[in-house]
């Protein structure tokens, strides 16, 4: 089937790569031992510290977010160490499985996949751990499978209330560059991320922001590591270089993407995502459909996971939308497979792109015979028309 017009990629990552980032990546590759490259390295490392809101080192690996998971674990822990994780979605479950395969003793707290991590449950579990067997707590900040964002400041307070020394390791793959995350202020020990979501790049770069406490833990950690080792990376980074061959052209793109975030300003970036997410949720409620995340204060700024009416298959609906309207929606993952679809609204994204996306969903619901109320698109328009902090009301 011939599909005309530009494809709408509305999955929650990889996101659309801006044209100016694509052009930056198309530059000729340079010598990664040259002074020119050292300047590039220093630029992107400084820019990453601004985005992670930290003064701590942020290291870069040529890898996906899964590589960042492994790097965070092998640099801080030893075989048999206790790890507390929460089954709040597909990526939280998979990170816990990664830890288990590395020889860690993982306690996975069951969850409904309708909420984020419960700070009170975390406090209860840590309070029982009087011998401090638990050495790290794993938290996925924004679970893209469910559209739930865990409340990191409350999680930090829960750990502190117990006086527990566990490291706080946070998967921020889909929140860095889109949702407010403060590595230093919130006492995160390792914040990990990937390039393909809020940072507006193709997949291929992963990141670890490393607290002083985490760096100290790395000096006694005994899990094997070579490629993922922090110390040689941090040492080389002091002059803008890397101990292994870097993904040079992705770094060109990263410098451009960080420049775009600087130009807009992080507070405006976060406000834009919150505003577009509120409009997307207004549409879902207008259609009479159910949002997967049950707590309003945990509903994600970057993805809305929508439950299908009983008896209707989400994957069949997604296929229909792709065939008829050339738009890709996110699949339901894990226990939500076939039961939900996901609308990504993050990265290089604005009002008109959101309205095109929501119009495609509403057209698809009608075309595929899914029961819904008309008016979701109109509800989103009403939500966008009101005054906002990032776009003050003004005349034309």
Task: Name the descriptors.
396 residues; alpha/beta; five-stranded mixed β-sheet; 13 helices
Write the SSE topology.
Blueprint: E1 8-10, H1 19-25, H2 35-51, E2 58-62, H3 65-74, E3 82-86, H4 90-101, E4 105-109, H5 119-128, E5 134-140, E6 142-143, E7 148-149, H6 152-162, E8 167-171, E9 190-194, E10 205-210, H7 212-218, H8 230-237, H9 248-264, H10 266-286, E11 290-291, E12 303-307, H11 314-325, E13 327-331, E14 340-344, H12 351-367, H13 376-385
Helix pairs in contact: 1-9, 2-9, 5-6, 10-13, 11-12, 12-13
Counting helices, strands and paired strands, the structural category is alpha/beta
The total strand number stands at 14
Please give the alpha-carbon distance between the first and last residues: 41 Å
- Please give the radius of gyration in angstroms: 21 Å
Main-sheet strand order equals: 2-10-9-8-5-3-4
Largest sheet: 7 strands, mixed
Shape: globular
Question: What is the average of the pLDDT values?
Answer: 96
Order of helices and strands: EHHEHEHEHEEEHEEEHHHHEEHEEHH
Strand content: 15-25%
Helix content: 40-55%
Unreliable runs = none
Task: Specify the number of helices.
Answer: 13
What does this structure look like?
It is a single chain. The chain is an alpha/beta fold. Helices cover 40% and strands 16% of the residues. A hairpin with an 8-residue loop joins strand 13 and strand 14. The longest helix is centred in the last third of the chain and has 21 residues, at 266-286. It is globular, with a radius of gyration of 21 Å. The mean pLDDT is 96.
């Amino acid at each position: 089937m011939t599909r005309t017009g530009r494809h709408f990629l509305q999955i929650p990552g990889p996101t659309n790569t801006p044209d100016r980032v694509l052009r930056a990546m198309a530059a000729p590759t340079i010598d990664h031992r040259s002074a020119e490259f050292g300047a590039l390295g220093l630029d992107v490392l400084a820019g990453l510290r601004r985005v992670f809101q930290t003064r701590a080192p942020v290291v870069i690996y040529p890898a996906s977010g899964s590589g960042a998971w492994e790097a965070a674990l092998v640099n801080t822990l030893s075989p048999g160490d206790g790890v507390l994780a929460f089954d709040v979605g597909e990526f939280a479950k998979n990170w816990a499985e990664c830890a288990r395969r590395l020889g860690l003793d993982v306690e996975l707290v069951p969850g409904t996949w309708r909420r984020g991590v419960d700070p009170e449950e975390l406090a209860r579990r840590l309070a029982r751990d009087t011998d401090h067997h638990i050495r790290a707590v794993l938290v996925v900040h924004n679970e893209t499978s469910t559209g739930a964002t865990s409340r990191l400041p409350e999680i930090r307070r829960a750990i502190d209330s117990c006086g527990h020394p566990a490291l706080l390791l946070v998967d921020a793959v889909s929140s860095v560059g889109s949702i407010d995350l403060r590595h230093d202020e919130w006492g995160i020990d390792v914040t990990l991320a990937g390039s393909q979501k809020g940072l507006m790049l193709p997949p291929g770069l992963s990141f670890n922001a490393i607290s002083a406490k985490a760096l100290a833990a790395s000096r006694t950690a005994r899990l094997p590591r070579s490629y993922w080792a922090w110390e040689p990376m941090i040492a080389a980074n002091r002059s803008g270089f890397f101990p292994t061959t870097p993904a040079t052209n992705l770094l060109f793109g990263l410098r451009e993407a960080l420049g775009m975030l600087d130009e807009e300003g992080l507070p405006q970036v976060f406000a834009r995502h919150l505003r577009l997410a509120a409009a997307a949720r207004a549409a879902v409620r207008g259609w009479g459909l159910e949002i997967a995340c049950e707590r309003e204060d945990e509903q994600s700024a970057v993805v809305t996971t929508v439950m299908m009416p009983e008896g209707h298959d989400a994957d069949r609906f997604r296929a229909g939308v792709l065939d008829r309207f050339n738009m890709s929606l996110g699949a339901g993952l894990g226990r939500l497979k076939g039961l939900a679809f996901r609308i990504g609204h993050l990265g290089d994204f604005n009002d008109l792109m959101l309205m095109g996306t929501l119009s495609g969903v509403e057209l698809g619901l009608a075309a595929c015979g899914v029961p819904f109320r008309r008016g979701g698109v109109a509800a989103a328009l009403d939500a966008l028309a009101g005054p906002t902090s990032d776009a003050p009301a003004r005349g034309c």
